[in-house]
Amino acid sequence: MIDYHIHTHHSIDAAGTVTEYCDRALEIGLREICFTNHCELDPKRDDSFISFDGEREPFSREGLKRLRKEIFEARDKYKKQGLTVKFGIEVGYYEGIELRLQDIIEGTELDFVIGAVHCLEHICIDSSKECKKYFDQYDAQQLMQNYFMTVEHLIGSNTFDSLAHIDVYKKYGKDHYGNVINNVPRDIMNHIFRLIKENHIALEINTAGMRFMNEFYPAPRLMKMAHEKGIELITIGSDSHRPEDLGKDLTLAFEYLRTNGFNTVCTFDKRKPSRQKF
Ligand SMILES: [Zn+2]
Ligand SMILES: [Zn+2]
């Protein structure tokens, strides 16, 4: 079993050290994990931080290298115990991030870079505190249109290895808009899945939705469409923000994949995918 979406206490919204996560991984029988701390860079927001020993500092290449050192040490230590440890990040995408991101990650030997849309118009729709500010301005159809337009730019930027939690807007959108939030138009999704395939980026199955609303990201309807559109590269992760959530619902997620016609997931090494049969 593998888990490719994990936040340690270096992310400002998460807890747990690299060692705590690695020990937990061994305890629950994972064979490979990839740390993917947040990399938020939007200058119009105040969340562009990385945390060391409880002290926040602006996200930078130096900070990323410091994090790498810690993760590489764990990689060496846990290799002997049968656990493979990879170094990744989860980048909050906004239009115009590309050059800044490229500059920060250059020479950092990342294995894996996930792209996520957390914010629209600099408002975090994945935050209980902020989402209403955005949702009050748009109806559900407009929200989804705007969200997927940003996703389209993310995919087209050629900067990411996998697309995180593709329908994350439902997390708080479901309470705000009701079930209509599930009705993302088929033509939008067909277009997005075609772009994912053409640009060779992976689609993430994220189990955090299970913990929050008893439904994976992506929802069953979207998973079906993804398979119909020929998506082949899949990554899988718990999006854990504390060690207790590591590996949560992964067994169910693999079943979910199998039911929808998928039989491989990707691991990454220095940004190169390799498909693993399960
Ligand atoms: Zn995310
Ligand atoms: Zn995450």
TrEMBL record:
Q: What is its EC number?
A: 3.1.3.15
| Species of the source | candidate division WOR_3 bacterium SM23_42
Q: CDD domains from the xrefs?
A: PHP_HisPPase_Hisj_like
Q: Which GO terms describe its cellular component?
A: cytoplasm
Family to which the UniProt record says this protein belongs: Belongs to the PHP hydrolase family. HisK subfamily.
State the UniProt keywords alphabetically.
Amino-acid biosynthesis, Histidine biosynthesis, Hydrolase
Q: Which domain of life is it from?
A: Bacteria
EC top class, as a word: hydrolase
Q: Show where the PHP domain sits.
A: 3-208
Protein name (record): Histidinol-phosphatase
Q: In which pathway does it act?
A: Amino-acid biosynthesis; L-histidine biosynthesis; L-histidine from 5-phospho-alpha-D-ribose 1-diphosphate: step 8/9
The residues that cross the membrane are: none
Q: What GO molecular function annotations does the UniProt record carry, in alphabetical order?
A: histidinol-phosphatase activity
* Gene Ontology biological-process entries: L-histidine biosynthetic process
Query: What is catalysed by this protein?
Result: L-histidinol phosphate + H2O = L-histidinol + phosphate
